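Section 5.1 Outputs to date
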Amino acid sequence: MNWRHLELIRERWKGRLVVKGIMAKEDACIVQDIGVDGIVVSNHGGRQLDGTVSPLRVLPTIADAMGGSIPVMMDGGIRRGSDVLKAIALGATFVFVGRPFVYVAAIGGEAGVSHAIDILLSEISRNMGLLGINALGDLKANRLMRLNDGRSG
């Protein structure tokens, strides 16, 4: 597949179109010009290209290139509330959290997933308080220096 295929899809599909797997600002600009409604910065879990860079590392450049014109979402590497906040601070409009919920669903079913959601929400809320913010819109990259949960990155 190539960009012409995406152009054909856009011509034929008048609904919302989001492209997942963007890992470079150049590609983000191409799909924006084609007319997509949003992008997902994702390396697909690194499964296809196990040596690829983390989506979090390329997110700021891509978000800056989009300049708020379309939603820039991020998928991959999100394991806890502080990861969600880091992605939003670096320009994500929305953050997907998948793998932790798949794992807990396999072990704890629906009750386990509900508990994991509660934990994630609690982590986000606590970390926002520690950062001195009350709304995600107040979260900017300069706050990341305060966001330290004991891990590097």
